[in-house]
Design goal:
By secondary structure, the chain is mainly beta. 5% of the residues lie in helices and 44% in strands. The strands form seven sheets. The protein has a four-stranded antiparallel sheet with strand order 1-28-27-26, with no helix packed on it. Strand 4 and strand 5 form a beta hairpin. The N and C termini lie far apart (48 Å). The structure holds calcium ion (CA) (4 copies).
């Protein structure tokens, strides 16, 4: 089927959803965040929340694709103000993940450098400062990294997605910040991201790869020794650019907020992991309810109420016990918040004009009021690109976020 006829099908589906009228279009106009934007490096492509200076105030790390560095934003506790520093990495950083690679209890960072084709390891000192532990050459153009323990030795490992060689690389850590063993597995065409989870509930971590050119996802089951085998392929929308695993969209009424996030390693006896793929080319997301055996029920496609969605984050933004979704829409410069009510039912709550060209989204409680907040990296690809920034949306605990008045 051609992309054109697929797109027509998508439009027809979206139209049906609209006619079905589950209150999708009731949300008001876009709003602007109450916090002023925070300047970072040039063309930020990924943002992740962490705790880098052990003051119990959430922090952020941003990978800046064109300034070849990572911005470290240490939270002040008021939610809007961060102290910003930067640390150099390789060329063209595209993705960033938090781990503890030397096992000393402080958070470290792994950065996929697309242009220099390596993964940089930054070891955190626990005071907000990072030092380079070197770079591991990977493929031809790694664009996404995630962290897991794929060989179950208690040492954190890294999975890197290489969009040029169409492979993923498993970097097995030795708990000193080094990764002496690397394994390579073939995936689909132009893989764009990876989600780590345990989709068949055997206590061995599995992977889901979004394949941009194939418009599908691959589920790879782990053997617990760092090897992966294709379990199944699932069709999604057009151009999936981001895949996220989650607990419990299909786990009706039994999720309690404190169990939903962060994911508890021992929670998977009861919860079944579900999945989201973000379809940049069809302006929607695919939600898959997990069956618990590494397969999923048929996708449910949901409009993101913006164009070219680039990333999602899952939270419980209205604290009703059901997981919600926040989406960054790169094409329309906004973020939309879709509130869940169990299963695959979501409704648009509000949209926010977050800044130019949002590429990535993270969450934490930056002002420590008990409500989850959002951080969005804006590439600002219009001139001047040095205006790249991070927008903060402070949550109100009812699914809305503080707006500029
Ligand atoms: Ca902190
Ligand atoms: Ca390991
Ligand atoms: Ca598994
Ligand atoms: Ca908050």
């Amino acid at each position: 089927m051609s992309r054109k006829s697929l797109a027509a099908g998508v439009l027809a589906f979206a139209f049906l959803v609209f006619v079905g009228g589950v209150g999708y279009e009731q949300a008001s106009q876009s709003q602007q965040p109450s916090c002023p934007p925070i300047a970072v490096g040039v063309l930020p492509s990924a943002i992740v929340a962490g705790e880098f200076n052990k003051d119990a105030i959430p922090d952020l790390a941003v990978a800046n694709h064109s300034s070849d560095n990572v911005s470290i934003l240490l939270g002040s506790g008021d939610g809007c103000t961060f102290s910003v520093s930067s640390v150099g990495v390789g060329e063209g950083p595209r993705s960033i993940a938090v781990g503890d690679f030397d096992g000393n209890g402080t958070q470290d960072l792994a950065v996929a450098n697309e242009t220099s084709a390596d993964v940089a390891i930054l070891l955190g000192g626990g005071n907000g400062a990072f030092r380079s532990a070197g770079s591991i050459p990977i493929g031809e153009g790694p664009i996404y990294v995630a962290v897991g323990d794929f060989n179950r030795d208690g040492h954190q490992d890294i999975v890197a997605v290489d969009q040029i060689s169409d492979d993923i690389f498993i970097l097995l850590g030795d708990n000193t910040g080094a990764f002496p063993e690397i394994k390579r597995f073939d995936v689909g065409n132009r893989p764009s991201s990876v989600a780590v989870g345990d989709f068949n509930r055997d206590a061995k971590q599995d992977l889901v790869i979004a394949n941009d050119l194939d418009d599908n996802i691959h589920v790879l089951l782990g053997d617990g020794e760092g090897n992966f085998e294709l379990k199944g392929t699932f069709k999604v929308g057009l151009g999936p650019g981001h895949a996220v695993q989650s607990f419990g969209f299909g786990f009706l009424g039994l999720i309690f907020p404190q169990l939903v996030w962060p994911v508890q390693p021992d929670f998977n006896r009861d919860g079944i992991q579900d999945l989201i793929a973000v379809n940049k080319g069809s302006n929607d997301i695919s939600i898959f309810i997990g069956k618990g055996d590494g397969t999923f029920n048929k996708q449910r496609r949901l409009k993101t109420h913006g164009n070219a969605p680039s990333a999602v984050i899952i939270g419980d933004f209205d604290r009703n016990g059901f997981q919600d979704i926040a989406v960054a829409n790169q094409g329309t410069d906004n973020a939309s918040v879709l509130l869940g009510s169990g299963g695959t039912s979501f409704r648009l709550r509000e949209k926010y004009d977050v800044g130019d060209d949002p590429s990535s989204i993270a969450k934490a409680d930056f002002n420590r009021d008990g409500c989850e907040d959002l951080a969005i990296a804006n590439r600002h690809s219009d001139f001047p690109q040095e205006a790249s920034n991070v927008a903060i949306l402070l949550g109100n605990c009812d699914g809305t976020f503080q707006k500029k008045t």
